[in-house]
Amino acid sequence: MKIGFGSDHGGYNLKCEIIEHLAKKGIDCIDFGADDAVQSVDYPIYGQRVAEAVAAKDVDCGIVCCGTGIGISLAANKVPGIRCAVVSDTFSAKMSKAHNNANMLSLGERVLGRGLALEIVDAWLETEFEGGRHQKRVDLISAVEEKYNK
Ligand code: RB5
C-alpha cells in the first residue's frame, strides 16, 4: 500500500510520527511536505497536493495533518473525487471508511495525543468500505460535486 502524506507546520510533527509508525509496518509513505514545524506555511497547498495524488491514483489514499485537521481537510475536499474526513476518535475513523468510503484522513496535531492519533490511523486503514446502501449515498456525494463542477 502506498499512502500520500501532507501537513502544514502545525501538523508536521504528528505527520512524522504517523509516517514512522506506518513505515515500520512496511507501508510505502510518500511525503508531499511541509518539511518542518518551524516555517509557517499555508495548509491549503499541502491538502491540495495530497488530494491531487489520491485523485490521480498515484497513491492509494492520503493522510493529512494541520493544527486542527480542519483547514487542510477543507482544501483537500475541493479536489474532485476526494472524501477527506476530519476525525478525532476511533469510531468515527471506522465509520468514515465503512460508510463514507473516505479516501483521505485528516488529523489535528493540536487536538490529538500521539497514542490516540496512531490508533485512529490504524482503525481507518484496517476498515473496509461496506458498499451496499452506502455506495448509493457516496454516489450522491459525487453527484453534488458533478453538479457544481460543470
Ligand atoms: C496554523 O496556525 C493553523 O491555522 C492550521 O494548522 C490549522 O489548524 C488550520 O485549520
What's the helix and strand layout?
Elements: E1 2-7, H1 12-23, E2 28-31, H2 43-55, E3 61-66, H3 70-76, E4 84-86, H4 90-98, E5 104-108, H5 114-126, H6 133-148
Parallel strand pairs: 1-2, 1-3, 3-5, 4-5
Helix pairs in contact: 1-5, 2-3, 4-5
The structure holds D-ribose.
The site of D-ribose has 9 residues, from helix 3.
Give structural notes.
The longest helix has 16 residues, at 133-148. Helices cover 47% and strands 16% of the residues. The mean pLDDT is 98. The chain has helices at residues 12-23, 43-55, 70-76, 90-98, 114-126, 133-148; strands at residues 2-7, 28-31, 61-66, 84-86, 104-108. Strand 4 (84-86), helix 4 (90-98) and strand 5 (104-108) form a beta-alpha-beta unit. It has 150 residues and is of the alpha/beta class. D-ribose binds at residues 8, 10-11, 43, 66-68, 70-71.
